[in-house]
Amino acid sequence: MFRIKFKKKIVIIATGLSFILSYLLHHPKIEGNIYSDIVSFWYRPLVRNVKIPYIQEGFEYPPMAGLITYISSLIGGGELIPYYNIFSIILLLSYMLLVLTVQSSKYGWSRDGWSILNGLLQQLLGLKT
Length: 129
Known about the structure:
Blueprint: H1 2-26, H2 37-42, H3 45-48, H4 63-76, H5 80-104, H6 111-125
Helix pairs in contact: 1-5, 4-5
C-alpha cells in the first residue's frame, strides 16, 4: 500500500514538474519561448474578440480544442496572459486526469506503462537514454 501511494506521489510531482516546464517554455512573455498553437490562436479575432468558434469565426481544429479556446478567451477577456493561463490550467487538469487514470488502471504500472511514462518525461525534458 505504501509503495503504491509513494509511486502515485512521484507521478503527480513528475506530471506537475513536466507541465511547469512546458508552461514556461511556451509562455508568450518569456524571451526565447517555443512556438505554441495556443499563443498563435490569441492573435486571431476568434480569441482576441472572444468569438464563438465555428459559429462566429472559422476554426480548423477539433471541437474540443474550439471549446477550450473559447472558454479560455471568454474567462481571459481576450487578453493574452489570462487567456494563456486559463488554457494552461485546463490542459494541466486534463494531463493530470490522464496520468492518474493510467496510473490507476489495472495495467497502469506494468513494465510497459512505466516505459511509456519514462519515455514521455524524457522527451518533455529533452533527455536521452
